[in-house]
Design a protein that fits this description.
The chain is of the alpha/beta class. It has helices at residues 11-22, 37-45, 67-87, 121-133, 160-169, 189-201, 219-230, 256-261, 270-279, and strands at 2-6, 26-29, 51-54, 92-96, 108-110, 141-147, 150-151, 174-177, 183-184, 187-188, 208-211, 217-218, 235-238, 250-253. The chain has a domain at 2-152 and 186-214 and 253-268: NAD(P)-binding Rossmann-like Domain (Rossmann fold), CATH 3.40.50.720. It has a six-stranded parallel beta sheet, covered by helices on one side. Strands 5-14-9-12 form a four-stranded mixed beta sheet. The protein has a two-stranded parallel ribbon with strand order 7-10. Helix 3 links the parallel strand 3 (51-54) and strand 4. Helix 1 (11-22) crosses helix 6 (189-201). The protein is globular, with a radius of gyration of 19 Å.
């Protein structure tokens, strides 16, 4: 099976490519400016594929250029679906959304049927993307995936866990953080990639599914694990700029539906992920 893959060279995409190969599928990179409708049509027509995993998009939520979230994540995705429907009607399209669509008031382990309340441009663009994609359900098999936080080797240090790991690797004396008591669902990019690959080739999959571990850890626990791994003690300094008022204590994903669809999927414990990140060569 040939799986067209957008975002193939990104942080997640390179792991998804590897995961597809491991399950016997062939990843086919689809590189195009999603904002250019004609270019998207040409790119889709130029490749041979059976199904699609759409990962490409604007991701960092604090980016100042908010218009690009809508141009790429929303309109760009609709350009892609329109092109696929014309070139490969009926194809399964797995679209990477985000758990951020649930919003800041969500708490606990969130199931897919929970209400949505996006609170930033990135999350709003993702929910708009989901709603727009629904208009193609009669022409394509649309699968919306909502991944929760995940991390791994190669993720930029602007994100929280890589930032913490980087401080321990450099044996920094101090790290500035916000609320360390909050507990979150931290997945491993390798198992997230395995989930995408498995969803792309499975016989039947849900039309909307969380990609989550269903287990939560506090930032304090992550710090403790890295202290044990590194043998280095770091001083925590609270920076009020990083403190989110009204932060919920527990926020994770209910992974029941994903585990029903993929009974053999098994994410690693967070310690294994942190060990991998801490010990990885600098070039990775």
């Amino acid at each position: 099976m040939r799986i067209a893959l957008t975002g193939a060279t990104g942080f997640t995409g390179r792991f998804v490519s590897s995961a597809l190969e491991k399950v016997g599928a062939t990843p086919v990179a689809l590189r195009v400016d999603l904002r250019d409708r004609d270019a998207v049509d040409r790119a889709v027509r130029s490749i041979d594929f059976d199904r699609v995993i759409h990962l490409a998009g604007r991701a960092f939520v604090d980016a100042a250029d908010w218009r690009s979230f809508y141009a790429v994540n929303h309109i760009g995705t609709l350009n892609l679906l329109d092109a696929i429907a014309k070139s490969k009607p009926g194809a399964r399209c797995i679209i990477a959304s985000s758990a951020q669509v649930y919003g800041p008031r969500a708490e606990g382990l969130i199931p897919e049927e929970s209400s949505t309340n996006p609170a930033n441009h990135y999350a709003i663009s993702k929910l708009a993307m989901e709603q727009g994609a629904n208009l193609w359900r009669e022409k394509l098999e649309i699968v919306i995936a909502r991944p929760f936080n995940y991390t791994g080797v190669g993720q930029n240090t602007q994100y929280l866990v890589p930032k913490i790991v980087d401080h321990f690797r450099r044996r920094a004396e101090i790290i500035e953080l916000g609320n360390t008591w909050v507990r979150r669902d931290f997945g491993d990019v390798r198992s997230v990639a395995e989930a995408y690959a498995a969803l792309s080739i499975a016989t039947a999959v849900p039309s909307l599914v969380n990609i989550a571990t269903g287990t939560v850890y506090s930032i304090g626990q992550i710090l403790d694990i890295l202290t044990a791994i590194s043998g280095h003690h770091i001083k925590i300094q609270v920076n009020q700029a990083f403190v989110r008022s009204g932060d919920v204590e527990v926020l994770g994903g209910d992974a029941s539906l994903l585990r029903q669809a993929l009974p053999n999927w098994c994410p690693p414990p967070i310690r294994d992920t942190l060990q991998w990140m801490f010990c990885a060569p600098v070039s990775e």
